[in-house]
Amino acid sequence: MADTVYRASTTAPVNIAVVKYWGKRDAKLNLPTNSSLSVTLSQADLRTLTTASCSAAYPAAAGDSLLLNGEPSDVAGARTQACFRELRARRAALEAADPALPKLSTMPLRLVSENNFPTAAGLASSAAGFAALVRAIANLYELPASPSELSKIARQGSGSACRSLFGGYVAWRMGDAADGSDSMADQVAEAAHWPEMRALVLVVSAAKKGVSSTSGMQQTVATSGLFQERIARVVPQNMAAMEEAIAERNFASFAEVTMRDSNSFHATCADTYPPIFYMNDVSRAAIRAVEQINAAAGRTVAAYTFDAGPNAVIYYLEKDTEAVVGTLYHVLGGEVGGWKDAVVKGLKPSISLDEGIAGILKGGVSRVILTGVGEGPIKSEEYLVAEDGSPHATSA
Ligand code: DP6
């Protein structure tokens, strides 16, 4: 039985923070300077599928490997190595306690991973990627670890990945232990608690690749005075207000905190020396469009947020699809890819945007993604590694 190929597959979601993680207090353990909170997006539209496999028949000399979207990917980096090490140590403990268990911890790992969305969409896929990697190996090793326990491992792969171990509304508690043992994610509310939440992503192409989050946040921590105010006062207030807004399903409050927190994060980027700019003219036009939509609706129906790039993510409730999606669909036109017939069919352009704003959006938004709040990782019966251990380049 030495050549048995052991396999496990999972999918994992993307999450978009409404209170942002920005800043590390320990870069090695990837411990943050502040807590953060995100909405998990539906895997029907955005997900990573990962198969983890191991076998004594895999050549030991080749070591662990990862095939990502059909391309070999480097696993030698400290972050991936930290995830492998932690997961193997937990498996080794199980094997030590029960000698009847196969020694999976000693076998090379072969991982194959695929996203169901184009990398060109410019959406950070590291959160879904590391969440899927950790969950798939934990399933392979049959670890009894809870999602919060696994979130501590995924955090070391990429901070935001720890929040993709859960569905719905998820907090990453910064913790205060020096060893990171209390820096983990928990679920604030299930997706079913507030299932009407929707997200419209405006994909904006960046002229050149911006500063990576990892390096950008370290520059902010090192040079921004405003950042100290953000972590000491702004974020703690936003976390409390956001948890209350979610508990009460209060969209106006959810939206205000989301927009203020995004603005606060980008203000600390502008206060970094030299300054970092993630938003561009198209991003700013999206902000103005959301303001105009809210003003015309006479209440808050949409909230914008931006990560470390120019794409706008706009949260809204299903009942306000016409005001939000209808307005932007009318402005951008059906030729922009990503609209769903079931969502846009019959929508009337009830609100008209300022012509200048509409023109900038039309010229700069390359595609849209219409999605909603969704579930956490789901065990999958689809395998990207065949029974004989050979990897599939595509899941089709
Ligand atoms: C702006 O999780 O990509 O998206 O921990 O260095 O991998 P590393 O950073 P990463 O940072 C994400 C930053 C953000 C905000 C957020 O998702 O909370």
From TrEMBL:
Residues 199-378 form the Mvd1 C-terminal domain. Residues 12-185 form the Diphosphomevalonate decarboxylase-like N-terminal domain. It comes from the Eukaryota. Belongs to the diphosphomevalonate decarboxylase family. This is diphosphomevalonate decarboxylase. It comes from Parachaetomium inaequale. The chain holds residues 1 to 396 of 844 of the full protein.
